[in-house]
Design goal:
It contains 5 helices and 7 strands, in the order αβαββαβββαβα. By secondary structure, the protein is an alpha+beta fold. The radius of gyration is 23 Å and the shape is globular.
Length: 179
């Protein structure tokens, strides 16, 4: 019974580790990319960094170097494009540089100093959806003879996390039964 309890505990802790939210230091841990006006031609360095990462709901962005004279504003897409600082959704100041990504979809951040934003001090982050389904965006155009509908499978779709969970349960059961 003790072996079963320890196996179940191990599986549970492994599942928690897979689903754990992450903190991302904006620009990267080793980067000299801080929340400042980009120099020269390097106007999209933070957006390039964001494109290289996969953000999930629950993750957090951490700004380590917001100057006391600046701030980070979460804004709408329209305000992001126009660098409008007067109607932020949320404002992060130098002593509060952590933002939790609480939903899937795009987030837009700009400098609280409008002239800095116009010089490229802004960031767009896209948070992945919780479920990835292959859903067509629009129906296919009608043809003369419609194609027959595909047969529905009686099997169910299992996502990557589901497969990982099943594999962990199987490993736990095998180790319980044979060790």
């Amino acid at each position: 019974m003790a072996r079963l309890a320890s196996t179940i505990s191990l599986i549970f802790l492994s599942l928690l580790a897979v689903a754990e939210a992450k903190e991302f230091i904006v620009g990267g841990k080793e980067s000299k990319t801080f929340w400042r006006v980009p120099a020269g031609e390097n106007r999209s360095n933070l957006n390039y960094w964001a494109e290289q990462n996969r953000f999930r709901s629950g993750d957090a962005l951490v700004w380590n170097s917001v100057a006391k004279s600046d701030s980070v504003l979460e804004v709408s897409k329209k305000d992001y494009d126009s660098c409008t600082t007067t109607n932020p959704i949320k404002e992060l100041k130098a002593d509060d540089g952590k933002f939790t990504l609480d939903r899937s979809g795009p987030f837009y951040f700009i400098s609280g100093v409008e002239r800095h934003c116009k010089k490229g001090q802004k960031l767009e982050v896209v948070v992945l959806a919780d479920k990835h389904e292959n859903v067509p965006l629009a129906p296919a155009p009608a043809t003369e003879a419609p194609a027959p509908a595909p047969e529905k499978s009686s099997g169910s779709k299992v996502g990557a996390l589901g497969m990982t969970s099943l594999a962990m349960v199987a490993v736990g059961l095998v180790s319980f039964l044979f060790l």
